[in-house]
User: Fold this.
Amino acid sequence: MNKTIRALLLALSLACLMLLAGCAKKAPELVTSPTEAPQAAASAASEAPQTAAPSVTPEEQRAILEANRPLWAFTESWESPWFYTFTDLDHNGRQEVIAASTQGTGIFTYAHFYEVKADFSGIENVYRDDPALEGPDDWPEIVTDALSFYYDEAADRYWYVCEGVTRDGVAHHYYAWYALCLKDGSARWERLAEKNVDWDENGAEHVECRDAAGNPIPPEDYDSAVGDRFAGLEKRALRLEWTQVDIPMDNQPSVPDEPAQPETPPAPAAPADPGVRVTKNPSSEAIAIGGRTWFIAHADNGAAPTWLLQSPDGQRYSLADAMAANPGLTLEALPEDTLAVGNVPLSLNGWGVIARFNGPGGYVDTEPAFLFVGDYVNAYKSVIDGYRAAYVNGRQDDIGYLFDNHLSEMAAYSAGVGYALKDLDKNGVPELLIAGIDPVYPEYQKAIYDVYTLDGGVPTQVAVSMARKRYALRTDGSLFWEGAGGASYAYFVVERVKGKSVEQTEKLFTDLTADGQIAWYSRMGGLEDASPSNSTALTEAQFQTRVAELESTIYLPPLTKIA
Assistant:
């Protein structure tokens, strides 16, 4: 067999392995976009080292990565939780692992990036600290469901795009677009543009943007920096399956000559079945500085709860330690599973409240409820008052009135309406979510009518539901909407709030074939122009299974009644 034929067979084998790795439903697993150019996969495979035997499957390579887990795993409790994913960014047939931890109010992302060696004898570090980035080893926020990328066929390079965010206090935020390229065993980031946002003492926003060379540019050029850099290249997306790892607090070693960290009140280790079932999680609250509020939680088979507070960097505090860390704050555990919180300082913004219930076999912690310290209800007052007026005046059934006042037409399908505050894009400012109370139709039970954010302190509509496009909230903070354009055209879309807009990350849709039959498709990223020609064909069963998976994580947060 000559070398040309052997190389061709090797390329085809590796291409098939990568395709199987992208389509198999296993966790943790990389699922690649079906829009990947065939010639790109073949080119990458043809350049794979000749030592890369086709018998070394992606699963076997992941076993090599797992065997070397101590090299890339995070171990300190302050790094918890952290995430990892297996992938093949350079399409050379050798698997990589990316482990990442995003921590603190400054939103610093630390990452480890290793690839299987060419001879499969172990793994090697393909990325090292680069102080030229936001800070030493501060990565852009790469833990995302879908990673946009561009393939440069001429250079045979894949560029993966992320936006980095760093906060230097509440009054200064730094943003930057980066593109990651892995080639010949070495990964590097290219910074495309940066944006600095400052707020003065009067709350006025000041924005300064620069290009990759450091030259001043208008904000619109920052927004288009990615498209400009990769003009002429097709935008595609990689779907990443991340596995979360939580490190127990007792893994944190003591550090001599440093102040001791606040300790979580002692409690027995929770067994698989502690015999306690939480029936009510506490609800997040927005409160003015110096204000007072209450948190309530309930559980079956549990004693009175022990209350804990959690700082934005993940550290948990007893009530006494939390008051010591936030001077002036008052915390008091009351009967009926209630925690009273008083004289709330600005320093408590973004902290979580957790109730721990002890039962016959251990304990269970509730989901954290968060404190948004600031007059956010008043900031969104115009939107809340608009919905209240529609119901008070009996105009919620008047579609024309709703449209004229920028209210969701979904208000016509529920007896009442309420709101919740959730920080969907993790920028420290909660979004306002409007939803129905006692909707007319069962399928509207978990619908989110409206989503607003604050842009320079002004409420700005991010997403709105219509009768043929209904939004809902998923447990990971993403938005999910389903819509229809007729009996043959259905849409199921995942979006993430990003600033004052949304970015689509996944789309499932149906279309008609040339002979009039319904066909099912999926596409990751770049979804506005999704069509059968640039999407993946699915079977009806695959389509319905994925829709069910997305819908299984939909929930409605606790609402404060408006009307």
Remarks:
- Residues 61 and 198 are 46 Å apart (CA to CA).
- The radius of gyration is 25 Å.
- Confidence is low (pLDDT under 50) at residues 1-54, 249-272.
- The longest strand covers residues 186-199.
